[in-house]
Amino acid sequence: QVRLVESGGGLAPPGGSLRLSCAASEDIFSFYSMSWYRQTPGKERELVAGIRNVRETYYADSVKGRFTVFRDNAANAIHLQMNNLNPDDTAVYYCHFRGVADFWGQGIPVSVSS
């Protein structure tokens, strides 16, 4: 059973920064893609950022230039560095790894407010 453990969420002021982490229970080269999604009440879960083909990264238009996704192979983890946060970034963030099967983290809340 593959387990994804998220950490690093919480409360930040507008313009602040947070770093989310997602650690996997097996080496991350087992997966085709590794990504972050987010969801708020009344909205569909949306793709935020991800890594595919080992090092190719991709981002939602709403976070380009502010968020960076990167991997730590030794720690079997990916991270999402979030800078210049605004209240629209408030959501529950989910880690998602795709391989032969799909695996999701439990979700971690991020709140951006003064």
Average pLDDT figure: 95
What characteristic shape results from the CA principal axes?
Answer: globular
Q: Pairing-aware structural class of the strands and helices?
A: mainly beta
Spans of 5+ residues with little confidence (pLDDT < 50)? Answer: none
Along the chain, the helix and strand elements come as EEEEEEEEEEE
Sheet having the most strands? 7 strands, mixed
State the separation between the terminal residues, measured CA to CA.
40 Å
Strand content: over 45%
| Number of continuous helical runs | 0
The count of β-strands is 11
Radius of gyration over C-alpha positions, nearest whole angstrom? 13 Å
State the share of residues found in helices, binned by percent: under 10%
Write the layout of secondary structure elements.
Elements: E1 4-7, E2 10-12, E3 18-24, E4 33-39, E5 46-52, E6 56-59, E7 67-72, E8 77-82, E9 91-98, E10 102-104, E11 108-112
Parallel strand pairs: 2-11
Antiparallel strand pairs: 1-3, 3-8, 4-5, 4-9, 5-6, 7-8, 9-10, 9-11
List keywords for this structure.
114 residues; mainly beta; four-stranded antiparallel beta sheet; 0% helix; 53% strand; globular
Structure description:
By secondary structure, the protein is mainly β. It is built from no helices and eleven strands. The strands form two sheets. Strands 2, 4, 5, 6, 9, 10 and 11 form a seven-stranded mixed beta sheet that branches. A four-stranded antiparallel beta sheet has the order 1-3-8-7, with no helix packed on it. Strand 4 (33-39) and strand 5 form a beta hairpin. The termini are far apart.
